[in-house]
């Protein structure tokens, strides 16, 4: 049986290429779904959630000086 790996917000932020505060803001404003929390009440992300966040971050990166504002939902 394979153990499920979880990643901290700092690890995810580094992989996505944004600041951890940016991820927290995206969660707080509903742009990305609230992840699970560990026994210390810290946010923990699965590999699948990280891929969704990478997709979202790619979609919202500024292009030509303007930023698109999208919302990622868990149904993707």
Structure summary:
The chain has helices spanning 9-16, 20-28, 47-60; strands at 7-8, 36-37, 43-45. The chain is mostly helical.
Please explain how this structure is put together.
It is a single chain. With 76 residues, the chain is mainly alpha-helical. The protein has a single domain, classed as Multidrug-efflux Transporter Regulator, Chain: A, Domain 2 (Orthogonal Bundle), CATH 1.10.1660. 41% of the residues lie in helices and 9% in strands. It has 3 helices and 3 strands, in the order E-H-H-E-E-H. It has a 3-stranded antiparallel sheet with strand order 1-3-2. Strand 2 (36-37) and strand 3 (43-45) form a beta hairpin. The longest helix has 14 residues, at 47-60. The relative contact order is 0.19.
């Amino acid at each position: 049986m394979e153990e499920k790996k979880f990643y901290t917000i700092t690890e995810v932020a580094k992989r996505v290429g944004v600041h951890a505060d940016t991820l927290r803001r995206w969660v707080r404003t509903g742009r990305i779904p609230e992840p699970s929390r560990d026994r210390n009440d810290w946010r923990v992300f699965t590999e699948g959630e990280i891929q969704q966040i990478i997709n979202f971050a790619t979609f919202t990166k500024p292009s030509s000086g303007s930023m698109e504002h999208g919302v990622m939902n868990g149904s993707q």
